[in-house]
């Protein structure tokens, strides 16, 4: 940050990105005022367990809390939870309670909201917040059947929890395989096998014509399906409607430079899923709904605000606990032009579990996907970060 050091920093969004920004600010010696604005009444909590341990009943809500109100107070944070930002005027954040909080710097970390299906009726469940997860857990406790629209990570994790409760599950996916955009067609077929082997009725290449009510839908071909419960697990969109007319966006995310500064908005940074940072290697602004990417960028933005040394960013990493194994993805799988089986025989029709696949782009390792082989997966982190050549990757397989 140019000029004098900030005295007051406003963080909008009380999720992982907002909290990690605050923690880094304090760790790097910032002693000024920090105000945290959060639309939910809850203290900052971790979202990945919502569709896993919390939904299955293994955990209760206290286990997902990242830092409670007392912990925020110990950080010297003024927490305005249950208060939504409705507009940004310079570095002044207007709130839905009629107030305005103005800082020398503003960090936008409002994340995502669940994407809705066209004309989605009341009664169709979504899963994005802690309250969503608790409501879905209660509903699954009495349901006998469930339709999941979308076979991504949320769809897979909810399917696992529902099957574990004895609920019959039908999964509808528009693409030809689950997670096709992330995994590709060939590896996505392994994810499909996880659904069917677990007993779910997975229907890929299926389009929904319309939702008739909260429990019934009609497919594009005219088939009507009903269940006790319908879940829309079709992704999420950035929570940025409160910024309409206030700044520049790229593909509905806030366009930022390499340091997290929002393009065209002086004194404003953005981190987390609502931000698209400039990637010189790709020559474009890049988002990414990754837990570790959010943590890395939060630290880097905090350092930029204070003028301290930022951490070295690692490759993006995401994981999902589903069907009794951990699915792990590191790096950029979407840029690959070659797949290399590293471990296991899943691609040849063998067991899915234990399969590790390398994604090469131009002969260099761009990403790795692992199905239930964390010990083997970890050896490829440094190789992905270095963009190791094909020969070096193959030499590591032994």
In total, the number of strands is 26
What is the CATH domain class of the largest domain?
Alpha Beta
According to CATH, what is the topology of the largest domain? Answer: FAD/NAD(P)-binding domain
CATH homologous superfamily heading of the largest domain: FAD/NAD(P)-binding domain
Query: What kind of oligomer do you see?
Result: single chain
Largest sheet: 5 strands, parallel
Residues in β-strands, percent: 25-35%
Stretches where pLDDT falls below 50 for ≥5 residues? none
Question: What topology, given as strand order, has the largest sheet?
Answer: 3-2-1-7-19
Radius of gyration based on Cα positions: 22 Å
Domain count, please report it: 3
Chain-averaged pLDDT:
94
Going by helix content, strand content and strand pairing, the class is: alpha/beta
Structure description:
With 398 residues, the protein is of the alpha/beta class. It folds into 3 domains: 8-113 and 237-306, FAD/NAD(P)-binding domain, CATH 3.50.50.60; 116-234, FAD/NAD(P)-binding domain; 324-395, FAD/NAD-linked reductase, C-terminal dimerisation domain (Enolase-like, domain 1, 2-Layer Sandwich). It contains 10 helices and 26 strands. It has helices at 16-27, 53-56, 69-74, 130-140, 153-164, 180-198, 291-306, 374-377, 381-386, 390-395, and strands at 8-12, 33-38, 77-81, 85-89, 92-95, 100-102, 105-108, 112-114, 145-149, 168-173, 201-204, 208-211, 216-219, 224-226, 229-232, 236-238, 249-250, 253-256, 268-270, 275-279, 284-286, 317-322, 325-331, 338-343, 355-361, 364-371. The strands form 7 sheets. It has a 5-stranded parallel beta sheet. Strands 22-23-26-25-24 form a 5-stranded antiparallel beta sheet. β4 and β5 (92-95) form a beta hairpin. α1 (16-27) runs parallel beside α7 (291-306). The longest helix is centred in the middle third of the chain and has 19 residues, at 180-198. It is globular, with a radius of gyration of 22 Å. The termini are far apart. The mean pLDDT is 94.
């Amino acid at each position: 940050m140019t000029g004098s050091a900030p005295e007051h920093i406003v963080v909008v969004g009380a999720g992982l990105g907002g909290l990690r920004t605050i923690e880094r600010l304090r760790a790097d010696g910032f002693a000024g005022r920090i105000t945290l604005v959060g639309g939910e009444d809850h203290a900052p909590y971790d979202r990945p367990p919502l569709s896993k341990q919390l939904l299955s009943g293994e955990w209760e809500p206290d286990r997902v809390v990242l830092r409670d109100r007392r912990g925020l107070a110990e950080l010297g944070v003024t927490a305005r939870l249950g208060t939504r930002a409705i507009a940004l005027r310079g570095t002044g954040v207007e709130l839905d309670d009629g107030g305005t909080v103005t800082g020398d710097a503003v960090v936008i970390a409002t994340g995502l909201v669940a994407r809705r299906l066209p004309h989605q009726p009341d009664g169709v469940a979504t899963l994005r917040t802690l309250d969503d997860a608790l409501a879905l857990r209660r509903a699954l406790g009495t349901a006998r059947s469930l339709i999941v629209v979308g076979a991504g990570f949320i769809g897979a994790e909810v399917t696992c929890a529902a099957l574990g409760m004895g609920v019959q599950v039908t999964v509808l996916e528009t693409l030809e395989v689950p997670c096709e955009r992330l995994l590709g067609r060939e590896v996505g077929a392994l994810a499909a096998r996880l659904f069917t082997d677990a007993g779910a009725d997975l229907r890929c290449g299926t389009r929904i014509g319309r939702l008739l009510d909260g429990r019934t839908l009609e497919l594009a071909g005219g088939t009507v399906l009903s269940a006790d419960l319908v879940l829309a697990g079709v992704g999420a969109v950035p929570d940025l409607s409160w910024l309409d007319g206030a700044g520049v966006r790229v593909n509905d995310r806030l366009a930022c430079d390499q340091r997290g500064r929002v393009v065209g908005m002086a004194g404003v940074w953005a981190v987390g899923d609502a931000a698209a940072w400039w990637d010189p290697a790709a020559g474009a602004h890049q988002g990414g709904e990754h837990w570790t990417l959010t943590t890395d960028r939060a630290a880097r933005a905090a350092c930029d605000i204070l003028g301290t040394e930022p951490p070295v960013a690692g490759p993006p990493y995401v994981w999902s606990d589903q069907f009794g194994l951990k699915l792990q993805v590191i790096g950029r799988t979407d840029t690959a032009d070659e797949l290399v089986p590293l471990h296991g025989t899943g691609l040849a029709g063998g067991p899915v579990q234990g399969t590790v696949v390398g994604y090469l782009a131009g002969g260099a390792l761009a990403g790795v996907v692992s199905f239930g082989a964390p010990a083997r997966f970890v050896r490829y982190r440094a190789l992905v970060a270095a963009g190791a050549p094909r020969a070096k990757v193959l030499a590591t397989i032994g």
